[in-house]
Amino acid sequence: MLSAVKSAVYTVYARRLTRELSRASLPRHVAMVMDGNRRWARQNGFHDAKVGHRYGAEHLDEVLVWCRELGIHHVTVFVASVDNLRKRDTDEVDNLMLMIEDVIAQRLSHPAGVWQVKTAGRVDILPDSTRHALKLAEEATRDRNSGFHLNVAVGYDGRDEIVNALRALLEAGSHAGRTLDDVAERLTADQIASHLYTSGQPDPDLVIRTSGEHRMSGFLLWQAAYSEFYFCDVHWPGFRKIDFLRALRSYAARRRRFGS
To answer: pLDDT tens digit string along 5-27?
Structure first.
């Protein structure tokens, strides 16, 4: 009985938040740090971190449905950093890669899907099977014209991204026969942005991090320069729709200053 009452109250509250947001200015691009999978598993009595990664990967499907329903056309999710892949136990990393292959890449590639997938990160440090699965997901979704774009950040480091963008910019200038002085003199922020993983997409308006951590961990260092931030105490697998709607409500209530 109590569970039914809680469910009814949750449904009513979610509907009220959705009505409020129907009149609000919503972000075009939401970035999310999907943190807390392992802690969620421990809190729920699971002794294996693999369970948390499985629930976390599967939960992405649901969150993307919420974004689509609300008309949020650009989403970037932080799945794993370079440090995550290098410093965590081999078994845990192997399982995380399997979740990316079997859950994220495979489901996003389904013909009924709407999201156009792009990988953001050092694919060269990923296992061959993971790199192949993400490549297939990109190819399978490349021609989708729904307008919904998903960036999957895995093997990602924000400083590496900026360094690689500058390297690509210098290489392009060299191939065009331009001198280093000429490239430097004409260098603009837009030119650098055009070589980032999110090239052609708007910068994130809102960055959400779950699990209560109040840091960025090198996520979208360039793109998030003027983003609004929302830190949520719940772990990623337990991130509910009302938590997402509250984040959007908080964003809508803010007066964005863009550095001023």
So the answer is: 778 888 899 999 999 998 889 99
Pairing relationship of beta strands 29-33 and 74-81 according to DSSP bridges: parallel
List the CATH number of the domain containing 80: 3.40.1180.10
> Is 143 one of the annotated active-site residues of the chain?
no
pTM over 0.90: yes
User: What residues make up the domain containing 81?
Assistant: 28-253
Which one from 61, 84, 160, 164 is the annotated catalytic residue?
84
Residues annotated in a binding site for Mg(2+) = 35, 228
84 catalytically annotated? yes
Number of domains observed in the structure of the chain: 1
Residues of the chain falling short of pLDDT 50: none
Distance of CA 90 to the CA centre of its chain: 23
Q: How many CA atoms lie within 13 A of 94 on its CB side?
A: 3
